[in-house]
Amino acid sequence: MLFFDDTPSSACTTASDVQDLAAVDQASPPTDQAPAPTPWPEARRHVIQMSGGLGSFFAAVRVAERYGTSAMTLLFADTTVEDPDLHRFLRDAAAFLELEVVRVCDGRAPFDVFDDVHFLGNSRVAPCTKFLKQKPCRDWLKANCDVADTAVYIGIDHFEARRTPAILDEWKPWRAGFPMCDPPYWDKDTMIAECRALGIEPPLLYKLGFKHNNCGGICVRAGMTQWRHALKVFPERFAEAERREAEFRAKHGDHTILRQQRNGLRRNLTLTQLRQRAETVQTSIFDPDQGLEQTGEEHTSGGERRSA
Ligand code: SF4
């Protein structure tokens, strides 16, 4: 049962009353709070953690511009649930850089990890990141690179730069660099335009309204707004996530990917509840997005807080 009315217009509430907690977790502080750019590590070998998004592609381009590509590796951790167009984009990006993509893959999908570790990923803790992305990449680095002579590059941009200290810690003993945190500071629209200018079609998910190109638009770190968007754009993917969440709850109790808050009280929100509420709104006289605003939900930046 929803904590607040799932009817579309029962009452206007404010963002301070009802909040999508994933949106709160992911809200970006003003960029003037961002730390100063981190100097790139001194290294002979350069490994780009290719997420499939534009940030990591342009990080690779900037590394190539500084060092060339002869000692560069494009490392991609496949979660097995990526949008098919991500693989097309990776091929195009690699062809542009005249490199091959090195793919690592745990073999499981995010919900398989949640089942295995008995923990449902959410905006605060996402074990899928650790097991499907970080660990396979670190295993590859350990087997193929010298920690003393290798830099790892992550594609987060200036607008996410507040995350760099935590990512530097996560990657230790490997040294990380953040080329897109350096000027010129590019937002996503600029990256899309620059990508087209290079003759490469940007990943489809951006065109479909997603802020990140990962896990096919179904990310446990996203907030309600992205999940609702996924329901509209990819109803079958949403249905599969809804089914897997329900299975997890049947085994492990009242855990949910999403939470919401009203008047300081936090409640779980299942994907089934979110869908039912969206369907109620859609059959009403109200526009769904108008309904969202009336409930005072905050729009989320969505997506993974990479290093996923
Ligand atoms: S993109 Fe989201 S769902 Fe996919 S591995 Fe990263 S945190 Fe997990």
Brief synopsis:
Helices cover 42% and strands 12% of the residues. With 308 residues, the protein is α/β, with parallel strands linked by helices.
Explain what you see.
The protein is an alpha/beta fold. The protein has 12 helices and 8 strands. A hairpin with a 2-residue loop joins strand 7 and strand 8 (265-269). The longest helix has 18 residues, at 127-144. The model is unreliable at 1-19, 23-32 and 285-308 (pLDDT under 50). Iron/sulfur cluster binds at residues 79, 110, 121, 126, 128-129, 132-133, 214-215, 219-221, 304, 308.
Low-confidence stretches: 1-19, 23-32, 285-308
Which range does the strand content fall in? 5-15%
- Return the structural class: alpha/beta
N-to-C CA distance: 32 Å
Percent helix, as a range, is: 40-55%
Each distinct ligand:
iron/sulfur cluster
